[in-house]
Amino acid sequence: MTVATLLFLPPDDSQPWRWWRIRDDMVEREGEGLPEVTAEDRVVAVAPADAVTLHWASLPARSPAQALAAARVVVSDATAEPAHDLHVAVGRERDGERAIAVVAPARMAGWLAALARGGVDPAAVVPAPLLLPEPEEGYVRADLGGQVVARGRTTGWADEPVLTGLVTRGETPRLVDRDALRAAAIGAVAEPVIDLRQGAFARRRRRTAIDWVLVRRLAVLVGLTALATLAIDVVRIMRYSFGADAIEQRAATIARQGLPRGTGDGDASRMLGERLSALRGPGQGFTRTAAAVYAIVEAVPDTEITALQFEPNGALRVSLSLAGEAQANTVKSRLADAGFTVESSVFQQSAGRLTGDMTVRS
Prior knowledge:
The chain is α+β, with helices and mostly antiparallel strands. It is built from eight helices and 17 strands. It has helices spanning about 65-75, 105-115, 160-170, 180-190, 210-255, 270-280, 285-300, 325-335, and strands spanning about 5-10, 20-25, 25-30, 40-45, 50-55, 85-95, 95-105, 125, 140-145, 145-150, 155-160, 175, 305-310, 315-320, 340-345, 350, 355-360. The strands form four sheets. It has a five-stranded mixed sheet, covered by helices on one side. Strand 6 (about 85-95) and strand 7 (about 95-105) form a beta hairpin. Helix 5 packs parallel to helix 6. The longest helix is centred in the middle third of the chain and has 46 residues, at about 210-255. The protein is rod-shaped. The chain starts with a strand and ends with a strand.
């Protein structure tokens, strides 16, 4: 069931307020003065035609702010007052064009203040000419809430003999009968071509009561999301743990392959380390110590190794043949720089070469 009240704003204070009560797409009642408005009512105020200037223009599809800026440019070309000093409202697009309404901000504020004093907060404010049916051609006129208004396809104004003649170029507007007028007005109220309650005069949204059912539903959704996130983390941790266990098991299997047969159970990595230490020998082991000694001796000219002997205590005995004492001192100092402790025997001169032993320890 559709319930609405069409409230006609008087052109001046000397004229009374008029209203139509609409129910189920019919004018149920009408009267003068401010009507009693119930909570189920949708009040639409009708602005007098002489207070609103209407334009139609082709504005490209864009955001509301951009459409309003373009409408102000159109209005500035058709009015002597600066567009930023006027209240400009833009209607919805229809057949490539939009209706543009211009009204003085003081008039708009005065109407809303008068309605507020009567306890009315209108859902929309529409210009009176736009309640008339849109003619396919020519112009139409009607008495609407005590105001005689006229309309064309892209025009709307307060019907005055001189003004009407100028707009229509002498053509007499057709009179709209009562039933057609009311049907058109009811349709315009249901879907206004333009609403003046825009920008600074837009209707404020009332705060509604908290929907606790919705709040509980959102809380459940948040809880389920948290549980899902936690479950994902738990699955990831378990996956990493299983992967680490598998890697450790594989490492233990590989390490056990390097142990001799018959080795008892135990930590395969530890036992493999012990075997490597035994094979390598004490200290830094034979391999690392010998490699370091060979690298240093090769770097010293006219120096060569004649014999190697690896001792059980990790010391490496190196027999050297050198060109002279300078080479022996060089080898010894470089071994010390490499982190080894070096003890030299007494070198002897034989056949033009200097021979002797060096004991190298970690």
